[in-house]
Amino acid sequence: MAEVLIGGSKQAARSYSFDEVAIAPSRRTRNTEDVSTAWNIDAYSFETPLLVAPMDSVVSPSSAIELAGHGALASLNLEGVWTRYADPDPILEQIATESAETVTAHMQRIYADESVKPELIEQRIKEMSAAGIVVSVAVSPQRTAELAPIAAKAGADIIVIRGTTVSAEHVNSDGNELNLKEFIHELDVPVIVGGCSTRQAALHLMRTGAAGVLVGFGGGASHTTADVVGIRVPMATAVAEVAAARRDYLDESGGRYVHVIADGSMGSSGDIVKAFACGADAAMVGSVFARATDAPGRGAHWGAEAWHRDLPRGERHLMNQVGTFAEIMSGPSTRADGTVNIVGALRKAMATTGYSDLKEFQRVDMVVTTS
Amino acid sequence: MAEVLIGGSKQAARSYSFDEVAIAPSRRTRNTEDVSTAWNIDAYSFETPLLVAPMDSVVSPSSAIELAGHGALASLNLEGVWTRYADPDPILEQIATESAETVTAHMQRIYADESVKPELIEQRIKEMSAAGIVVSVAVSPQRTAELAPIAAKAGADIIVIRGTTVSAEHVNSDGNELNLKEFIHELDVPVIVGGCSTRQAALHLMRTGAAGVLVGFGGGASHTTADVVGIRVPMATAVAEVAAARRDYLDESGGRYVHVIADGSMGSSGDIVKAFACGADAAMVGSVFARATDAPGRGAHWGAEAWHRDLPRGERHLMNQVGTFAEIMSGPSTRADGTVNIVGALRKAMATTGYSDLKEFQRVDMVVTTS
Amino acid sequence: MAEVLIGGSKQAARSYSFDEVAIAPSRRTRNTEDVSTAWNIDAYSFETPLLVAPMDSVVSPSSAIELAGHGALASLNLEGVWTRYADPDPILEQIATESAETVTAHMQRIYADESVKPELIEQRIKEMSAAGIVVSVAVSPQRTAELAPIAAKAGADIIVIRGTTVSAEHVNSDGNELNLKEFIHELDVPVIVGGCSTRQAALHLMRTGAAGVLVGFGGGASHTTADVVGIRVPMATAVAEVAAARRDYLDESGGRYVHVIADGSMGSSGDIVKAFACGADAAMVGSVFARATDAPGRGAHWGAEAWHRDLPRGERHLMNQVGTFAEIMSGPSTRADGTVNIVGALRKAMATTGYSDLKEFQRVDMVVTTS
Amino acid sequence: MAEVLIGGSKQAARSYSFDEVAIAPSRRTRNTEDVSTAWNIDAYSFETPLLVAPMDSVVSPSSAIELAGHGALASLNLEGVWTRYADPDPILEQIATESAETVTAHMQRIYADESVKPELIEQRIKEMSAAGIVVSVAVSPQRTAELAPIAAKAGADIIVIRGTTVSAEHVNSDGNELNLKEFIHELDVPVIVGGCSTRQAALHLMRTGAAGVLVGFGGGASHTTADVVGIRVPMATAVAEVAAARRDYLDESGGRYVHVIADGSMGSSGDIVKAFACGADAAMVGSVFARATDAPGRGAHWGAEAWHRDLPRGERHLMNQVGTFAEIMSGPSTRADGTVNIVGALRKAMATTGYSDLKEFQRVDMVVTTS
User: Fold this and answer.
1) CATH fold of D19-368, please?
2) Fewest 10 Å CB contacts: which of A112, D215, D278, D352?
3) How far is CA B104 from CA A230, A333, B179, B347, in A?
4) Does domain B3-368 have CATH number 3.40.50.2300?
């Protein structure tokens, strides 16, 4: 990245958001029918490279099954309402209808009043397994050691360890820190871990043995990390940097390919397309699916950082509902704002620039614009 | 273009929109009466360098005749309402009055319910020919092989092959792709083709034998390609790059001058002036004329991408009506927003900077500003 | 200026507006009482470096007299209402009260219905002379040859030749062009001429023998040249470039100091301060004084470009009235928005950065910010 | 800093605001419990590095005591209502409830009608001393010589000399200027002095013997210096530059460490975090605490520049009240906008980037973004 001087001896890297970049068509075009959006990670194959973020507003056991039917991999949050409450429906209804003034305090209580229950973890995983889908679940780094083994034993196929920032070197004065490398090695399930946003941090995460790393802080529409703690790395730069770490690690490991998964800050199909152009192998999105009429959030959208006990860094957002999961994935669309037919938009972008698969599309020409 | 690093090894070209550039007067000025806005392409001469985009909201057979009287070259879309419906007036009325919520679905039906009819193509071309104007018609790349010969036979003088992105190397797995170079060679009518936005893509289009290439994605006010598919090349840079391709090709072809026609993203006379300053030979505009009280759109404006079956990338816009075609072209004006007296504004810009013809004006000094 | 590449071979100069720059205090401060804002041009001395733009909304014979009492030099437009109408008061009242939709057409009529009358020019100049003030009047370049001699004969002390862009080399096919150098030489009155915005254009104007050159296009709040004709040079850069021309000419002429007068785009005292920091010797402002409760415009503000017959490039603006001419000049102020106590603000800026006169203040440190 | 050319020979330093920069997590993380926010200056130790600005809207004797209990150091303005009025409560009530149109004139009267009284200075200091807190008071540079000795004698522990711009070389034609170096040397109390915003100005202030220097112009939400006098140095650059001066002076003085205290332009916890990342040792904030339900301003917020007699450069702002002083300092929070739990946010930022104390945190990686 280009270094700029803020002042004195303080250097900073000039970084770009998806709003500031775009894709430039090249000399070749292609039919959309001749384009493949297939994605494979570990032993699993998917029709699309879309993951659905482990947020209660978008992923329930039944929405995960529905989304799998459309080619997307949804992860259930093992610390959300589905493992705290036997019947979360009234809870989800409350969150969707509570007033803006009181909803944060309300959510803080909801997620504090009931603890995560191992038996509900097992039950939810079995519900999804029974439908024959690839079962993905997510845990926070703080509770990984406790919850991930339960999930693995219950039959989870892919485990996501997801926090706003996850490092391979967590320092803990009480000596109880998680050794990610050992943990992943011992766990008999492929792991996706993140977020991270720099080349160095990503390289360390790749060395833990993860199958994929999440790039970003897991939010955008639904969190406000920059305002509260001053932390932000614009996503176009973050994805491109972590893609560089993928190449670094591919060389150093003698050929292990760790998937780079853009996570958050993608509010439209155009943003998702740009993530692949910057080097992502897959994209984990939340708000795009929170706009589904059949989403568990009932039009509301929030992440775990919105109910943090003493320092919430996100809010419940009321989204414009634009169509079913099926329509949002593959259309048809009657909207021109990038909210419906995400896969169609990705295919169109690839076809317009003449690429036939996602790996090649990572090389597409880009421009920097003002937003 | 200046290359910037987004991150990792991902380079991008710093690109500029018309909003970010402006014209700087030089040491000489001139009377507006001493300025010529004449434009010639192939065997045809025009008083102004303005083309009107093949959009149903602005070009009908009768509006093409009216606009020709004011020195502009309007192209009729051969895949629009005039070749699908014997009497499109009620259709146009519906589009103009339908609510914003339902109009996209409505347009999708209108353009699907009736197919394009060869006999209507012939009829519309003859209507225009009968008025003695230079007849220009437009087709999409997908239907060029089918429709362009019909138009040529019916007497079209100039054929525009226009899509959001058109390449000289379209890859088609079923082997039925159009060989543009052979097609244009065999067609006995001059062809204008595009859009394109990079030097390389433009150079390949020029090699097909086209008389002119369109720069841009054919929209601005009326389409949202960037939000939906992430594709965008800001126009000041795109025009300047394609103008460089014109020079490249002029040399490589031993003197064939292919016209560079800026297409879209010009919402005011100021933007149109900047297109010439960046190197355009002519400008194709839509929204500027959709504001005419005598436009077929009745104040509504939309392009073909707004009624795409499953991935619309544009919307019907309701425009502020500002005057007749005659007033929008040459005034007089009572508005200071760049919507009326486009030709007067172009003459004023040329006079203020001391240039007497459009070719010279391509050399005018420019500045980069923030928008 | 730094050159940037728009695309192809099209270079442009990166330019800055007042919004993008600011003044940085240095290691020294000073008392505001120890600061001088005196300005001298030709044989005339003024307490402040503020000129008032020749616009009917701010300068009438009586407001020029009032403003002179506060140290400002106001120029009466010899092509405005005061030389067309014996009693312009009802005219000014109409412009102030006409609706936004119809006011441009109304102004076009007002300035067309009555011609400029030599006897009214004489009368207005004598009204001002009788008050003992330095009499300044303004003419457009088109009518300079006709009107300036009348004004000189009637006793004008300073003549301003002012258009949106004025060049020393106006090319006119009918051979009747004004030779500015000869004209100024023969006229027995000091001349201020402009606008210009580049170093080269300014240098040529300086060589005509002018006492001062105007930098800018004479507007900001009240004109829309950029939207209509695409012409714009952001003012911080324009002033700094013309200040460089002043140094060039000082050397080439063996010591003739031509005053650089920033004209327009200064809507607050902060902008005026920045003009001096960029190298201006004086500042000509309009909108700042149109906010006076005793301005002839009665709260309305417009320039000559707003009533152009067929291509208006400005509008009548209704301004927030903030105080009397006296208060706007020197306070006291109860507002914190830079609209009142312009001279106090200039003194404060100079004191805060440790400078005691305006010539030294041109060297003050500046920063570039985002606006 | 990177120099850019505005035009001609006018150079300027490219400067960055907090909005344009952000913190990038590195490869290490840490528990928030393992982070220290302790700050020491001279003989005094504090749990947090937060100072509260000497503004009547936030600091009264009782609020200073309350804030000290939460680890913050509040300075009482010795030229504010508490030293002019025996009972300022009705005065504060009036300022909070006066209409926006008349409040500036009202404040000008309030601060002019009653003079600063030495006996009230003594009384207020004793009130605070009696509570056992570190007593800090503030004076303007203009009245330092008169008021600071009174405060020192009455028992103030830390004296803040604070103006919008304070220099070590104030030039005064009447010969009565304050020699800061001599004055500070003779005063038997540690002094914090500012604002300043450049490396050179800061270095000179450090040489006066001050214990700390304030960076910035003491405002943001509550003053409009840029609009009125054109002066502004964006804070990220200002803090980084003054941090460089700290290193310069540390070397030249053979080891004297002068504290760099960011002052103003920090409206959220994210901004405060960024100040430390840019090199600040402590942060003085006003508006953040004006949002307290127990602030003396009753939801209103203003600084001394808002009641300047003839050139006010700030306004009374009505703030959104978000919690008690205790909650704003350390939570818990139900808001995600960076207004509550400032210390928690700072700890979170340090933990997320793996730093354990504030001095180390000054080295954290940063990025430049668009705002």
Assistant:
1) TIM Barrel (3.20.20)
2) A112
3) 42, 9, 33, 39
4) no
